[in-house]
Amino acid sequence: MPTSASASASVTLADLTARTGLDVLAHLEREVTVPVVAGLQAQGDLIVVPLALLGDDVTVPPRAPWQTVPAGGVELLRGVAGGNPHTLVADPGTCRWTWRAGDRQGLALGVLDAREVAYLIHPEHGGTGIAPGRYAVRRQRERGEGTGRFGNRFIAD
Question: Which long-range contacts (CB under 8 A, 24 or more apart) does 20-27 make?
Fold first, then answer.
């Protein structure tokens, strides 16, 4: 895995899958450079939001247990009916994750704190890079007649 934001500019999907052991579907272009984003980004049914943009809507309790993202990554969410996982990966010791996040809207899966570029990998969507910083990872929702809060339903991947 790359160890700096500047090194990440040349990371391809092929590099990322080879380094992590995670795979993507065959139709995805493996030689594409994986983008690194410091702002909002979405991957299927997840959205990554800089924590500073959320004010006090998403909080991390002072004693929240943080785990270092291991070499094999952390599965954040698996698609409907046991589908494909969204996996957070990073160089050893450069990113940590907590599932303990308070979210007024009930959408947060957790918070990540990356000192170096981290990545989300999904078999259908490929990879996206997350610039260093602290981010909430939330479920996406859409307007509809679903059973979710506020008359919305979660986006199903």
Answer: 20/71, 20/72, 20/73, 20/87, 20/89, 20/119, 20/121, 21/72, 22/73, 22/87, 22/89, 22/121, 22/123, 23/123, 24/121, 24/122, 24/123, 24/124, 24/125, 24/126, 24/127, 25/123, 25/124
